[in-house]
Specification:
Elements (H helix, E strand, L loop, with lengths): L51 E3 L10 H12 L4 E4 L1 H7 L8 E4 L3 H7 L3 E4 L5 E5 L5 E6 L19 H5 L10 H6 L8 E4 L4 E4 L3 H7 L1 E2 L5 H7 L2 H13 L2 E2 L1 H10 L8 H13 L3 H11 L1 H5 L1 H9 L6 H16 L5 H17 L5 H16 L3 H18 L12 H14 L17
Parallel strand pairs: 3-6, 9-10
Antiparallel strand pairs: 1-8, 2-3, 2-7, 4-5, 5-6, 7-8
Length: 437
């Protein structure tokens, strides 16, 4: 099982692939209590395949009251409804869920009829937002089935590669609870929690993987990654953020399929990279991207820079650790410009070093990245201006730039670099020679 290592312990660009025995990693997180009494009023389950049932020790106080209200209301109307996905996974890992999502047998129009405080959203796939006070939203989706050969969304295109033909372009067919579980990406995300019976429904072996603390795909890893290459980044996110191992077969498939990321929609790539950086595990996420070769595909500029560094040059990794420390200290993500600055600052400074025109050099470095990953102009332009101003700020000559709206971001990035590595030297722009008169 592949587990994230510590980048500062690696030797001179070496990419280790340490595998640990998953065995009894961590304490068991479930307490099975079979035979416990079940509430009388619960809708009949309509499953093509019966799940494994588990009775974990999840305290009611840890479950969002409004999400539980949505489930119970749907149950009282005769519909199946469960808490699903990341909230169930986080509860079982003794973490505080960020969001609570609901999946149900009720169609969107049925959910809308049950909840007056709701709205149907989406065109490609309709779901319902049930609205509560203070802007809280409980996302409620109808069970879907996995995409099949006749629901992938398009006829085979002339000249399309085999990899492109595996891509899911449509995922919009309603189904049953067991089908909805099987269409999800990883086993740890396919667990359904029955609020009424206080049971976890498991069709994919997710409870065993929770106990083993391992990321495993539902089905053949290569096929699942080729269906949606973004799942490679999601596997990295879960491994880094939740401190989970990665099944060896899944890890090898990630390495094998990494070039398929070029087929993914650019906005999705950008958003998923932001999620990797925002979650308090940016350092481990980037390390896993580098180790798996994903970084060579998405950010070859950074990958080449890291490969060329000496063992003692840890500034980039320490900057990412600063991002994680600040995220945890503040309880919220660092500004997006600062996130991308921490990620790209060192190779960007190297690209500008020795140049007469730092603005032009920075733009030539950033333009291919912005095109490849759909980086918004507000971020790439801010990074270009910040890197040009850093030497002046560092020298205390920032009076004019101090009036800029990005001065605070530049100052925070410079302070992070100083704290990450006090001995790191900031290069200065090369002065133009004056022509002799």
């Amino acid at each position: 099982m592949h587990r994230p290592g510590k980048p500062e312990e690696a030797g001179d660009g070496a990419r280790s692939s340490a595998h640990r025995d998953s065995g009894a990693a961590g304490a068991a997180v479930t307490e099975l209590a079979l035979g416990a009494p079940k509430p009388m009023r619960s809708p009949k389950r309509n499953h093509g395949v019966n799940p494994m049932l588990h009775r974990p020790n999840i305290e009611e106080s840890r479950i969002d009251a409004d999400a539980a209200k949505v489930v119970r209301r749907l149950n009282s109307q005769g519909y199946e409804a469960y808490l699903v996905g990341g909230c169930v996974r986080d509860l079982l890992l003794n973490r505080a869920p960020k969001d609570f999502d609901v999946a149900t047998s009720a169609l969107p129009e049925d959910v809308r009829a049950v909840f007056r405080n709701s709205r149907v959203i989406g065109r490609r796939f309709r779901l319902v937002h049930v609205l509560f006070s203070r802007g809280k939203v409980i996302e409620t989706a109808t069970f879907r089935r996995p995409p099949s050969a006749d629901t992938r969304g398009a006829e085979p295109r002339t000249g399309a590669s085999a990899d492109e033909e595996l891509l899911i372009r449509s995922d919009n067919v309603f189904g049953c609870a067991d089908e909805d579980a099987l269409r999800r990406d990883f086993t740890i995300n396919a667990l359904f929690y029955d609020v009424q019976r206080r049971e976890v429904l498991d069709w994919c072996g997710g409870m065993e993987d929770i106990e083993r603390r391992v990321v495993r795909t539902i089905g053949e890893p290569v096929v699942r990654f080729m269906e949606d290459p973004i799942r490679i980044l999601r596997a990295i996110k879960f491994s880094a953020r939740l401190d989970l191992g990665i099944e060896p077969e899944v890890w090898h498939a990630m390495v094998q399929c990494r070039n398929a990321l070029t087929l993914a929609a650019k906005p999705r790539l950008f958003e998923e990279l932001l999620r990797l950086m925002r979650g308090g595990a940016a350092q481990r996420s980037v390390w896993l991207m580098w180790e798996s070769g994903v970084l060579d595909v998405l950010l070859p500029e950074l990958a080449s820079y890291l490969a060329d560094r000496k063992e003692t040059d840890r500034t980039s990794w320490l900057l990412l650790r600063q991002v994680d420390d600040l995220t945890k200290k503040r309880g919220e993500p660092v500004d997006d410009v600062v996130l991308w600055g921490a990620l790209l600052l060192e190779p960007l400074l190297e690209a500008c070093a020795g140049s007469h025109d730092w603005g032009l050099s920075a733009q030539e470095f950033l333009d291919p990245i912005a095109e490849r990953l759909n980086v918004p102009r507000r971020i790439s332009d801010a990074l270009r201006r910040i890197v040009c101003a850093l030497p002046r700020i560092d020298a205390g000559q920032s009076s004019r730039f101090a009036r800029s709206h990005i001065y605070t971001q530049a100052l925070e990035l410079l302070q992070m670099r100083r704290e990450a590595d006090p001995d790191a030297i900031l290069p200065a722009p090369r002065r133009k020679r004056r022509r002799a008169s």
